[in-house]
Specification:
CATH topology of the largest domain: Rossmann fold
Order of helices and strands: HEHEHEHHHHHHH
Helix content: 40-55%
Structural class: mainly alpha
Shape: extended
Low-confidence stretches: none
Strand order of the largest sheet: 2-1-3
Length: 236
């Protein structure tokens, strides 16, 4: 904000949550007063039901950059969604449009395939995307694009890589600092405890009323009879 005010710059948000209207908690959106002090682009431009990906944001950001130039303002692109930033400076392919209903139906069908069988499908549909480097998520995307658009994802990616990269200069804000060994140990313990608590909450909810409680054994590993409970569970 200080830099933008000093040089009359426009700020373009590269945050994948700030782009959505209504996502005002936990996203560090600039306040209304801050937006009055410095013009911002890329904030509150989409409904939560819309699908924004890196390629779509990069296309919009290119237009916002043009608007900044037309207004005679330098532009500061600010935010931590790395893939979106990369899509702007190293253009990605535009993902072919896919019908949401047909895509959801296809995803249900593809979910029934194990990964080796899915890879065989992709080998037939788009061989360049069936290499061992591609995990299940990449295989699913390649199959979806090929089956729903008739276009190979590898061809679309090749077309995207042909576009010239955009020059950029980077300012990385890195306030990590230092801490003592004792403080680091305490931070690890607190974070681990919080993560374990989230796991326990997830299992409590997943194995709730919809699961037969006869099938669920809850164990306190500190209990004197913990080994007996485990052995009895295993023997059922």
């Amino acid at each position: 904000m200080r830099l933008a005010e000093r040089h009359g710059a426009m700020i373009i948000s590269a945050d994948s949550r700030q782009v959505y209207r209504g996502f005002d908690i936990g996203t560090a959106k600039p306040t209304r007063a801050e937006r009055e002090r410095v013009p911002h682009m890329g904030i509150d431009v989409a409904e939560p039901t819309e699908r924004w990906n890196a390629a779509r944001w990069a296309g919009a950001a290119a237009e916002w950059l043009s608007a900044a130039r037309a207004a005679g303002r330098p532009a500061l692109i600010v935010g931590g969604t790395g893939l979106w930033l990369r899509a702007l400076v190293e253009p990605l392919a535009d993902e072919p449009p896919m019908d949401p209903a047909r895509r959801a139906e296809l995803q249900d069908r593809l979910a029934a395939l194990d990964t080796p069988e899915l890879r065989r499908w992709v080998q037939a549909l788009d061989p360049a995307r069936a290499t061992p480097r591609q995990g299940r998520t990449q295989l699913l995307r390649a199959a979806e694009v090929a089956l729903l658009t008739g276009t190979r994802l590898s061809d679309a990616l090749a077309a995207g890589s042909a576009r010239p990269p955009r020059a950029a200069r980077w300012l990385v804000i890195d306030p990590e600092g230092r801490m003592t060994g004792a403080a680091a140990r305490h931070a690890v313990l607190v974070s681990t405890r919080q993560y374990a608590k989230r796991q326990r909450t997830w299992f409590r909810n997943q194995l709730g009323a919809g699961t037969s409680q006869r099938m669920v054994t809850r164990l306190d590993p500190r209990a004197p009879n913990a080994d007996e409970v485990v052995n009895a569970w295993f023997g059922e």
